[in-house]
Amino acid sequence: MAAGGEPAGAARPEAEVGRRRLPADRLGRLAEGRAPTVLLVVGVVLLGAGAVLAPALVPIALVFPLLVLAGLVLEPRRLAVVLGATAAVVLVWSPVSLLDPVRVAGVVVAVALVMWQAVLVARSRALVGTRGLGADRMFVELRDRIVQAGGVPALPTGWRATSCILSAHGDRFSGDFVIAHLAPGEERLEVVLVDVSGKGTGAGTRSLLLSGALGGLLGAVPAASFLRAANGYLVRQGWDEGFATAVHLELDLRTGAYSVGNAGHPAPAAYTSGRARWTVLEGSRGPLLGLLPEAEFPRLTGRLERGDGLLLYSDGVVETRDRDLTDGIDRMLGVAAMSVVRDGDVAREVCEAARSGEDDDRAAFSVRRV
């Protein structure tokens, strides 16, 4: 007897119904692509007939857009039908065309290459599980959400903050990201700057997942526990390249008191208005996120007086292969100092002046009490 007094076999009819529905569901999914397949095959055949009967009016090159469209909207099995029809049309057209043999061979090679590209596109869409441009729209939406999460919320009077993310080689996806959260009442600001292992598009896919997870943790767990929670999440993922560095800032906007936690990340910098200079906040750091299940992350505390500021940044801002790290830090601090004098955007200026240039992802966040 099953729990709740239900017979153990009570669920079988429902399971059998589910099994009977599977073939119907599959037929339904197959039927979805039947009409486009038929239309594309008919289009290819009519185009081929026109190219054979009236070559001056219907060039065989018109088959190219049909192949591109087929690669976008059809799954690989149905695409094979369209490709077979295209191959038959080209074989019929070749001996009766008005072109010389060399140009005919060129057209055949071009058609074969476009057919192969259509296969690659269809396979890629099948792996993602979308058709047409759905996958592109999905990734664009995810990317835009990362950018939106990295936007700095409007701070109360007396505070100014900016952030900047620049990806390697101009890619639209970056392995670096910033998430900011302003607590209700505008009394407490939390920011985390993360550098996911790798760079560009390769790291961008992992940053999509990690940014969503950390965005849910930020402001939902105590600041002292944030990096431990983030580390636990990454450890559970078991990614081959699952490590990341991060720096987490908690700032009291009423008093200027702050605390910083560091997980294998470059040390943040602090600006002291009385001395008009930036200094690196050296202190104890925890390990990289995702390596040790029970890691601890000590925190550094301080206070921002009027005119003081903080700067968080990723290693792409200060590191480069042919330069010493100290040189990169000195350069960054010099750019930040000049930016404060000009009352500029510190985060963007240090990112744009990074010695690594476009060879690495760069991210920065700056906040100042004015």
Helix content: 40-55%
Number of helices: 10
Uncertain spans:
1-31
Name of the CATH superfamily of the largest domain = PPM-type phosphatase domain
CATH-level-2 architecture of the largest domain = 4-Layer Sandwich
Shape: elongated
- Roughly what is the average pLDDT, rounded to an integer? 82
Oligomer: single chain
Quick summary:
By secondary structure, the protein is an alpha+beta fold.
Overview of the molecule:
By secondary structure, this protein is an alpha+beta fold. The chain has 2 domains: 14-131, no CATH class; 137-369, PPM-type phosphatase domain (Phosphatase 2c, domain 1), CATH 3.60.40. Helix content is 46%, strand content 18%. The strands form 2 sheets. It has a 5-stranded antiparallel β-sheet, covered by helices on one side. A 5-stranded antiparallel β-sheet has the order 2-3-4-5-8. Residues 1-31 have low confidence and may be disordered.
